[in-house]
Amino acid sequence: MISNQFEKIKFVYVLYIYIFLSLNPLIAFESKDYQEIDILLKRCYRDIKSCNESLVKMNDYQKKAAINKKFSCQTRLLGLEANLIMASNSNFKRKEAKTIFDSIKKYC
Length: 108
Fold this sequence. Notes:
By secondary structure, the protein is mainly alpha-helical. It is built from 5 helices and no strands. Helix 2 (31-46) runs antiparallel to helix 5, helix 3 (51-67) packs antiparallel against helix 4 (71-88) and helix 4 (71-88) runs antiparallel to helix 5. The longest helix has 21 residues, at 2-22. The chain is elongated, with a radius of gyration of 20 Å.
């Protein structure tokens, strides 16, 4: 009887470890990440001085995507970074940023 309970507990622990290791927080974007990206974009387009901060954070997101081998996501984040660089040089392309942001939601 004790052996049977031990096997059940062992099974639960293994299942617990398997589930939570597969739910690594770097794997998927969360809704708060999309909200933060949207805020960063809007802030950059309103105030060009804040674009550098937005670029740094966007670069962090694309590095996470690269680590997790989500290359289609990484590509779109790099495109968004390029768009922010253009915005910081007063070459605004808001429609392109919206399109890229929508594809980030799809691929990240």
